[in-house]
Amino acid sequence: MIPRLLFLLIFVITLSNCTKEVVQAPQKSFFEILNAHPDSAVEITVTTALTDLLEERSSTYQEAKLDVQLPDGTFQSLHAQLKTRGQTRKKICDFPPLKLKITEESLIQNNWDTELSSYKLVTDCIGNKDLVAKEMLAYQIFQLFSEISFKVQPLIITYVNIDDPQNQLQQFGFIIESKKALAKRLDAAAIHNHQNMIDAAQYQKMTLFQFMIGNTDWNLRSEHNIKYVQLRNKKIPSPIPYDFDYAGLINAPYATPHPKLPIQAVKERFFQYRGRTSEQLVHTLEQIDELQNKILSTCHDHPMLSISAKEEVAQYLDSFFKIVDYALEHQDKVVQILKGSNYNLSAA
Predict the structure, then answer these.
(1) Helix, strand or coil, per DSSP, at residue 251
(2) 145 closest CA partner among 299, 290, 251
C-alpha cells in the first residue's frame, strides 16, 4: 500500500511541475507569429476609415480591423488601431507609413505577448514597389552583418475603406520588429543612450553598413534613425540602424543628402566614422568581405524586387566591394580610403 501511495504522490508532483512549465512558457509576439517564414509575404486586410487616415494624417490612433492569414494557414480577425507616422514621409507620401497597435483584448484572446503590441508598417509611399522592397532588403542585409538588428516581415496589404467597402487598395509593404521585441529576443534592455561610449564592434559594422548602402541620414547623439539596446553580458550599449529610405541603395526620388555634407546626391557614399586608426576596421572589413556572396545572393534571390531593381542594386553593392578590396590591399590607409582621400569613390 505504501509503495502505491508513494507512486501516486510522485505522479501528482511530476504532473504539477509539468503544468507549471506549460503555464510559464513564454508567449510569442504578434510579430513572431507573422515572421515564421520571413521570406514569404503574409496577406493581411486592413479595414478602417481610409479617407480620414490619408487626408488627416493625424498623430491620433483610429480604429481598424485586421484580418490575417497566419503562416500556419489559420485566419485571425484582430481589433487594432492605426495612425500615420514619420517626419518627411508623412508629409510627402501619397500613402504615408503607419504605426499599428494590436488591442490588448486581441492579444489576450490569441495568447500573444501583451507587452509587444505596437509596430511600424512601411507602406508604398509613392506607388513604387521596388522602393519598398529595396528598403526591406537593407534591413535583411544588416541582419547578415549583425544579430543585433531589426527583423522584417513582408506583407501584401489590402486596405478597405470602412465607409465604402468597394474602395480597396492593395500594396506591398513590410512590418518591422519593435525595439522591445528585439530586446526581448536578445535578452537585452531597450534603452536611450546617455553614455559617451558604444560597443565598438557593433559601431564598426553599423558605419560600414551605412557606407555600403549610401545612407547618411542618421545620428548617434540625437538617436536619429538609431535605436540602442544593452546586452546582458555587455556594459555599454549597441546601436541599431533603421529607416533607410534616404539611402543611395534605395535612391528614392525625394531623398537628398543633408546640405552640410560634402556630397550632392544620396548615391554618393560618405563614410561617417569617428575612429581614426585603420587597425580597428580591418577585421570588420574582412568579415564583411566574406559576406559578399551572401549579400549579393540575398539581392539576386529577393522575391519582391523586379529584375531591373536587382541589377541596379547589385551594381551599387558591387561598387562597395571594389572599395573594400582596395582598402584591404592598403590596410594601413583604410580610414583614408573609405573617407575618399586616397580613392576615387565615383569610379568604383
Answers:
(1) coil
(2) 290
